[in-house]
Amino acid sequence: MSRYRIIVAVCGVALAWCAAPLAITHAAQLRAGGAAWGKAIEVPGLAALNAGTALLVSVSCASAGNCLVGGSYQDRRYGGQAFVASERSGRWGKAIEVPGTADLNTGGSASVNSVSCASAGNCTAGGFYTQRVGKKNFGQAFVASERNGRWGKAIEVPGTGALNVAGNAQVVSVSCGSAGNCTAGGFYFARSSQQPFVASERNGRWGKAIEVPGMATLTVGVFGFNQVYSVSCASAGNCTAGGQYTDGSMNTQAFVASQRHGRWRKAIEVPGTATLNTGGLAQVSSVSCASAGNCTAGGSYRDGSGNTQAFVAGQRHGRWRKAIKVPGTEAKHSVLRRLVCCSEVQTDTLAGVPARLVGDLYLVAIIGIYRDYPIYFRYLSPQFPLIVAAVVEDVLVRGDEQGVQNELLSLWRSE
After folding, report:
1. pLDDT at 35
2. Gap between the Cα atoms of 147 and 204, Å rounded
């Protein structure tokens, strides 16, 4: 069996994540003009753990040369396991299975989805594991904390056991305002729908997860896929969460929710997105806070023509301003639609290219990933087509079907 390895690349406190499931780590070399990228290396220790497919999902740097990466690998029994690897003073240590997940992960499928470091050696990882009950597997959310360079055991996020009655929960994002003061956000399945949750750690102790306040008002009780995609903490007890919810008309909308001095306020639809999102498919993909009450949210929406567009919205002194379409994205807006929407091919770029071929692009990509990288399916989202957009953009205009297939499949296969 072929083995697929992960590589992470880190330059100072900057980072890069590549969709293809190869991974690299390297150290930055300072030059007169600034920082330069060092040579990529395989994540140390991962080769000994990984018997199949490995995927790096998240990276966080507390300071230059002090970083953490997390993701998943396939063990020798073909089970998915969660790993972390730390860089200290510019030197990468060996990847390890997240302590405690071996006992939790009785269903054989686990991953780190997000990591965050408040300072060197003080980090948090969040993700999911599967719990085997009888003949069924149930997805559960976990967090694990590192204190002064030492990892404690992963635990089920307190309170999610009671919320997650349908058995599918994950931590999607974590953020730490300071050592021992972090927030996790994600989703769980209730009896009627998927719901977003947040959970906060105070002075090293995790409180119970709660459904994002105000969500019941936004969703008006309809079935939907509601979740937190991103959290950011400016300081302990001052965080912001962003994601998506399904409204009463079964449209998907973008939301933000703010925590002030440890107390979560009600989630609101991102101001201005109601006007932009005439196609009924919006979400906040990422949030970042520079200080308490001063944050930015970014995401996507679908316009009235069925095109997917990018938006940003800013919060100043606790008040959210109206979202705007990202300036300069007009020329790029149709890439997503070309890949996923095959019935109406009317762009200049696709002139003369059969609609069937455009549809095949998406199917080929899905089939290729499913065959070689089944673990990646856990991370599919509305942004998935953007991963292959850069590859297919130039081959589309040639109308070279075999070329398209080869390029797409080679993107995901590197032995």
Report:
1. 65
2. 9
Q: What is the pLDDT of residue 10?
A: 37
Listed in sequence order, the residues at least 6 apart from 394 whose beta carbon sits closer than 8 Å to its beta carbon are: none
pLDDT at residue 60, as a whole number: 97
Tokens of 110: 């686990």
Count other C-beta atoms under 10 Å from residue 134's C-beta. Answer: 5
| DSSP output for 45-108 | THHHH-SSBEEEEEEEEEETTEEEEEEEEE-TTS-EEEEEEEEETTEE---EEPTTHHHH-TTS
Counting as low any pLDDT under 50, the low residues of the chain are 1-24, 26-32, 331-398, 411-415
Do you know the residue count of the chain?
A: 415
192: DSSP letter: S
Domains identified in the chain and CATH numbers:
56-332 (2.120.10), 335-412 (no CATH)
- For the stretch 22-78, pLDDT in tens is 344 544 444 445 567 888 899 999 999 999 889 999 999 999 999 999 999 999 988
CA distance to 362, 366, 378, per residue, from 375 (Å): 18, 12, 6
Count CA atoms within 13 Å of residue 77 on its CB side. 7
Phi, psi (deg, nearest 5) at residue 154? -65, 145
Helices 384-396 and 401-412 pack at an angle, to 10 degrees, of 140
Instruction: Report how far residue 251's alpha carbon sits from residue 302's, in angstroms, rounded to the nearest whole number.
Output: 11
Residues 359, 361, 363, 366, CA torsion sign: negative
Residues near 371 by beta carbon (within 8 Å), at least 6 away in sequence:
none
As a dihedral over the C-alpha atoms of residue 299, residue 224, residue 198, residue 210, rounded to 10 degrees, the angle is 160
- Compute CA 219 distance to the chain's CA centroid, rounded to the nearest angstrom: 23
Cα atoms in the Cβ-side hemisphere of radius 13 Å centred on 114: 23
Q: Are 301 and 243 in contact (CB under 8 A)?
A: no
- Bridge partners, residue 30, by sequence: 35
The reported pLDDT for the residue numbered 13 is 31
Res 78: pLDDT: 84
| Pair 162, 221: CB distance under 8 Å | no
Supply the pLDDT for residue 147: 96
Q: What is the pLDDT at residue 223? A: 82
* The model's pTM: 0.76
What's the CA gap between 236 and 299, in Å, rounded?
A: 25
SS3 354: coil
